[in-house]
Amino acid sequence: MDTVPRGLSETASDLGNLTVALPVLAAAMAYAIRHGRRTEALFAGLTMAAVPLLVVPLKEWTARPGPLEPWAHGYYPSGHTATALIAYFSAAFLVSRRLVPVAAVLTAVTGTGLVLRGYHWPLDVLASCCLGVLILFVSARLRLSRQPATGSTRRSSG
Question: I need a surface site. Which of 68, 76, 137, 151 has the fewest CB within 10 A?
C-alpha cells in the first residue's frame, strides 16, 4: 500500500519531465535575454542539453534494473532528477539567487516522488543529484572563463 497518495507522488515525479521543467527554464532564459544576459541564457541552455548527453550513456553502460521492473534496464542515474536539478537551478540562477531554495525543494520533491512511485532506487536519484551539481559547476566555470576580465582600472591621482 502506498504511504503517500499516488496522485501526489506521481505529480512530484512529473516535475522532472521535460514538458514541465523545460518551459520553466525557457521562461527564465527569455527573462535573462530580455535583461541583456544572453551569454548566461545560452550557457543555461547548453547545460540542459548536456543532461541527455551524459545520462543516456550512463544508463546504457550501467544497465541497472528498476525497483518494480527487474527485467527492464536503464534506471541509473535518474534522468528526471537530473533534468529537474539542471532546469530549476539554472532558472533560479538566471532570475534570482533567492530562488535557489525553491529549486532545491523542487528537485528534492522530484526525487522523492520518483522513489515513492517505485520508478527509481534512492541511489539513482542521489547519483543524478551529484551528476547535476557537477554539470552546473563545470558550466559555471566555463561561462566564467569566457567572460572578459572586468577589473577596475583606477587612475592614480597626482
Answer: 151
Does some domain include residue 49?
yes
Q: Could you state, in chain order, the average pLDDT of each consecutive group of 10 residues for the chain (158 residues)?
A: 74 91 97 96 95 90 79 81 97 97 97 90 92 93 76 45
Cell triple for 62:
550501467
With both helix axes pointing from N to C terminus, report the angle between 38-62 and 18-34 in degrees, rounded to the nearest 10.
Answer: 160
CA distance 11 to 86: 19
pTM, two decimals, is 0.85
Which residue range is the domain that position 102 belongs to?
22-143
Report the first-to-last Cα separation within the chain, whole angstroms: 80
- Locate cell 527573462: which residue? 31
β-bridge mates for residue 65, sequence order: 73
Q: Is residue 158 part of a domain?
A: no
